[in-house]
Design goal:
Elements (H helix, E strand, L loop, with lengths): L3 H6 L9 E2 H24 L10 H18 L2 E4 L3 E7 L2 E6 L3 E4 L10 E5 L3 E2 L7 E2 L2 E6 L3 E3 L3 E4 L3 E4 L5 E12 L2 H6 L4 H19 L16 H16 L4 E13 L1 H40 L7 H16 L16
Antiparallel strand pairs: 1-5, 2-5, 3-4, 3-10, 6-9, 7-8, 11-13, 12-13, 13-14
Helix pairs in contact: 2-3, 5-6, 7-8
Length: 337
């Protein structure tokens, strides 16, 4: 449960609008050209007009030049599904989500460039079959955050299920940034946070359920994929909410017994399948024998005593439950010889 102190520390995104860059660009360029022209004119014509010196004007124009150059650094662009967090001298001023060409205060913190890592490429490493390689995919600066939907394809994890059996499990998580303020200020690195919490949630989920063959009406990892995926998504959303991350989907992509017990579990599955098949065969055979005896008695085709009924049941069970083909023996004598 979230405490009051934790709620007070959590950030809340504020959507703000900044100046249109296409309006500010010609205005600043015009002021810059005007300043340069007046400065050149002042320096060339060093005489006095109407008894006043132009030195103060030249000083003002010189000081205005770096100011205009600084204002030109306030331009930035945003692509669709991209946002910029505005921080002015350590104070959060808001988030710009509208795509296009903008101008803002040039003293807004640009932030250090964030290199987003891609975990989708795999390269072989020495001593291992495959290993996930994190490759730089895109560099973002100026406190920009991508709002696009991203996919985290997790590695195979070796964990123990509810019964203590070692299994291999992997999941894919589809997520996006929902609150830019929380993603920027409430966690150190929200992408690493998503990766770490996804692995932790998957390990915890695997320990809550059996791989298969649980008790009656028990949810298992193999038999109830939909319920397990919903539980994984709910747990991930709870964990990642403090980072302003929204989980759109989470599902298992790999599920298997660990290699050291895979053969033993396969033999157990085969044995359980044979037992289940035998149960079906016996139930069907008993039903057929019961139907045959009732038909014979109702239609008065043949009257059998208990001993002959037992013999008939034994023969029919052998015929119906036998694995090999039955070769009947024709009795040429009487029923009681």
């Amino acid at each position: 449960m979230t405490t009051n102190a934790e709620q007070a520390r959590s950030s809340v995104e504020r959507i703000v609008r900044v100046q249109n860059g296409w309006i500010m660009l010609p205005a600043l360029i015009g002021f810059l050209l005007l300043d340069m022209g007046l400065l050149i004119f002042t320096l060339v014509d060093g005489t006095q007009i109407m008894g006043q010196s132009r030195t103060p004007l030249a000083i003002v124009l010189i000081l205005l030049f770096p100011v205009l150059i600084t204002l030109l650094k306030g331009f930035f662009t945003l692509q669709p599904n991209e946002a910029r967090v505005l921080v002015l001298f350590g104070d959060y001023k808001g988030t710009v989500r509208e795509s296009g060409f903008h101008w803002g205060n040039p003293f807004y913190t640009n932030g250090s460039p964030q290199i987003r890592l891609s975990s989708e490429a795999t390269t072989p490493l020495a001593g291992a079959k495959t290993a996930t390689a994190t490759m730089p995919r895109q560099t973002l600066g100026r406190n920009k955050i991508s709002l696009r939907v991203r996919t985290l394809n997790g590695d195979k994890l070796k964990v123990n299920d509810k019964r203590g059996n070692p299994i291999e499990i992997a999941a894919v998580v589809v997520w996006r940034v929902g609150d830019t303020a929380q993603a920027t200020f409430d966690v150190d690195n929200y992408e690493n946070y998503v990766m770490t919490q996804s692995e932790s949630a998957l390990r915890h989920l695997a320990s809550l359920y059996s791989y298969d063959y649980g008790e009656e009406n028990e949810i298992t990892l193999r038999s109830n994929m939909t319920e397990v995926s919903q539980a994984l998504r709910a747990e991930l959303q709870e964990r990642l909410a403090k980072a302003g991350v929204m989980v759109d989907e989470a599902r298992l992509t790999h599920l298997a017994y660990a290699p050291e017990i895979a053969q033993a579990m396969l033999r157990r599955q085969q044995a359980e399948a044979v037992i289940a098949a035998r149960q079906k065969i016996v139930q069907a055979a008993v039903s057929m024998i019961d139907m045959a005896l009732k038909e014979l008695a109702d239609k008065q085709v043949l009257a059998l005593d208990d001993e002959r009924k037992a013999a008939m049941v034994s023969n029919l069970m052998a015929v119906l439950c036998g694995e090999s083909e039955v070769h009947p023996v024709v009795n040429t004598g009487t029923l009681y010889t």
